[in-house]
């Protein structure tokens, strides 16, 4: 860990002078000690159940009784109960207990069990044997990775007084206790739903950033199955060490609590846009690269899972390194993994046969089905990884692999379009033997630029939008689940098709549902659900197992910052950048974030006769301003606020959908004003 990339250095400089913009939207707590905010429901004899919404209450549970508490948002951590008087301390043969259950969704609130972390059943109650007054804390292996609801249960004939129920919040273990809400990035626009979605995405990734000594112990791995699906006593511990380092970015907060390269492809850009938590990203990538075997393969999932191949997740680990380099410009880190990166690339290229395409031999992916053969998603991700490799090799002056990679990429692109593009349908088929047109492969074809022309991109965007249900974008390759993971890439695909309206519409539809449905947490994003809006995720038999805080569901956070407010880094660390606001039906959008190179921001206001964009990029960098299209002829004027650069004037003739690009803009604070003639 290099100190130069610590978020605290940036904040240390900034926090004394600057308030954090739009701080009121940040869901991360300002202190690690939390209390419930309200009573969800109560059964049996419980006096003053709402007493425990503060730190010094008095709530007496008598006989069989239970109260469910609501924290108002998804949280995580270790519970402590403060006990007052106890009627049965065991001295005459009876003993009082207080049990605790946890649930992310209101639908699994129960006085008998928690929601689930295993493939079947429900997790056991956490019992405290209470002998008398005092503080009773759960052992650390009984920290719960995510819950919005906590139920206190009393099960005997006596009574117990509880004076406080508090949680020690454990996510973001490497950040100081008072700094959990000290974001380096912000977003704001004139749509409150989108504002809440951006901040819920940022918070979801914080919830998924854990102490690596507290992964899931997986004591029932390959053991519990549907035959014991009514079990309400599944044992659970969070005490398995998953990575080295001080923090790890995992797939989900409640489960699996494992690093996952595919999930990181969505989470990493969102983290850069919000908290710039580079240390966790680095620890996470390192934990995958140490598992690389002599063939070059990086396994799908780390221990306790066996080291199996997933062609896509293997490539996603390489994409993670490329993203990290783009956002940090840290060539020291890139150099440290470059030989392994190239070995992993060669491993994937070894699956390309004489057709020029990769023949996928492992079904492992994001729990979709039918992953095999000349699969469009896998080949698009491969194409994208090769082109990223070419950029990385150029950045490191390692010219040796470049020409082979270029030739391989060109052939792969040509062969893929020849074999899998269906011109009539305007989409790619999943592989060479099916007519199924997947969501994942079509969005990845656009995102990877394996498409050969813009009409393909427009057709894919339009066809995908046609499929939306009232709950979002379904994935036919995965039993029609709604996958917020793949839909995160779909947001990017609509922006690349220059249809901002479609990107915003999908955010409002799908993430709006995830935000506002009463079964959700109103704070973090679920991993998947059915196309009819039921909280059923087809790959799982056990609905109580679904994770409500999954980093792979945070696509809007980066999409709003990079594609809507339009603050984009083009090369390492932001040495070159692009300001490309694309507001769709919004009238105002603003975003900013900091990297080790400095602060980048853009704030665009639509006016009666054009628009104004105030933007900022660090001194010593250069960039371009790109406006997707204008509805009128007019004039663009760029003024540097400190007068360091001369004004730039551009006449814009009326053009249909042609972007206006102003190149070679020096870093600094600028105002760009476009006025229609
Ligand atoms: C002993 O047990 C009885 C019956 O449950 C109970 O009412 C009483 O409070 C208990 N006393 C002590 C000191 O535990
Ligand atoms: C109260 O009882 C109802 C009906 O049995 C149950 O659904 C609910 O989970 C219980 N709530 C608590 C807090 O015990
Ligand atoms: C209450 O729960 C505890 C912990 O499971 C158990 O040991 C005890 O026997 C239960 N008490 C009653 C009265 O069921
Ligand atoms: C975080 O921000 C708060 C103000 O919101 C400030 O008091 C605190 O010092 C900051 N913490 C760090 C570590 O920068
Ligand atoms: C996790 O905690 C349980 C219960 O204390 C213990 O039996 C187990 O050995 C622990 N596992 C690890 C990996 O520490
Ligand atoms: C792809 O690889 C599998 C496994 O090696 C093989 O059985 C299959 O024939 C290959 N497909 C093609 C089209 O060559
Ligand atoms: C091709 O795609 C279809 C649809 O996803 C799938 O059922 C089939 O198994 C795939 N073929 C291979 C070889 O994986
Ligand atoms: C690559 O070469 C350029 C030009 O010679 C040099 O400025 C740059 O520092 C080199 N980069 C690395 C990582 O060696
Ligand atoms: C996409 O690929 C085409 C070649 O097919 C290339 O001309 C274009 O520059 C690529 N676009 C990007 C953004 O890399
Ligand atoms: C953009 O997508 C929407 C669907 O959300 C569609 O109605 C509209 O026609 C598309 N616009 C263009 C220019 O393709
Ligand atoms: C959801 O959370 C927001 C704050 O982020 C709050 O204003 C709103 O009332 C909450 N909605 C519900 C239904 O609890
Ligand atoms: C999953 C699990 O641990 N189930 C157990 C619940 O308790 C019953 C009775 O003690 C056991 O038979 C189950 O195996």
Descriptive terms for the model:
13 helices, binds 2-acetamido-2-deoxy-beta-D-glucopyranose, seven-stranded antiparallel sheet, disordered N terminus, Glycosyltransferase, single chain, Maltose phosphorylase, domain 3, 677 residues, alpha+beta, 22 strands, Jelly Rolls, 3 domains
Question: Could you describe the 3D structure shown?
Answer:
The chain has 677 residues and is of the alpha+beta class. It folds into 3 domains: 137 residues, Galactose-binding domain-like (Jelly Rolls, Sandwich); 343 residues, Glycosyltransferase, CATH 1.50.10; 112 residues, Maltose phosphorylase, domain 3 (Sandwich), CATH 2.60.420. The chain contains 13 helices and 22 strands. The strands form 5 sheets. Strands 8, 15, 16, 17, 18, 19, 20, 21 and 22 form a 9-stranded mixed beta sheet that branches. Strands 1, 2, 3, 4, 5, 6 and 7 form a 7-stranded antiparallel beta sheet that branches. A hairpin with a 7-residue loop joins strand 20 and strand 21. The longest helix has 20 residues. The protein is globular, with a radius of gyration of 26 Å. The protein starts with 6 loop residues before the first helix and ends with a strand. The N terminus is likely disordered. Bound molecules: 2-acetamido-2-deoxy-beta-D-glucopyranose (12 copies). One 2-acetamido-2-deoxy-beta-D-glucopyranose binds next to strand 7. InterPro entries: 6-hairpin_glycosidase_sf, 6hp_glycosidase-like_sf, Bac_rhamnosid6H, Bac_rhamnosid_C. It holds the Pfam family Bac_rhamnosid6H. Keywords: Glycosidase, Hydrolase, Signal.
